[in-house]
Amino acid sequence: MATTVGATIVLAGSPATAVGGGYWGEVCDYGRACLHLSGLRSGPGGPYWNLDGCGEHPINDHYDYAIAQGNPMEVVYRDDRWDYVDAWTGRTLDPTNVVTEAIEPFPTSGSAGQLA
Prior knowledge:
- By secondary structure, this protein is mainly beta.
- The chain contains one helix and eight strands; from the N terminus they run αββββββββ.
C-alpha cells in the first residue's frame, strides 16, 4: 500500500513531458492540434501542448482532452488503443492511460490543411 501511495504522489507531482515538435501554452492556439494535461497539471508555459505541424509527434504523459483545429488527429496510448479527433472538434481522452504519440496527417489534395 505504501508503494502505491508513493507512486501516486510521484505521478501527481511529476513535471509534464512532451518530446519536441510543439510548445506549452495557456490555451490551444488557433489552427493547432493540442493536448491538455490531466490532473490539473501544467507544463512550463501552461497546460496545453500545441503541436507543431503535421506528422508523428512523440508524447509521454497523461492527457484528458484533445483539440484539432485544422486537420484531424489520432492520439495513441501506451496500450496501443487510440482516439480519433476530427478536424475542428475536441474530445475527452483517457486520463488514466499514457499518450505515446499524436499523429496529425499531412493534408491531401483538396483538403483545408493546417492553418498555422
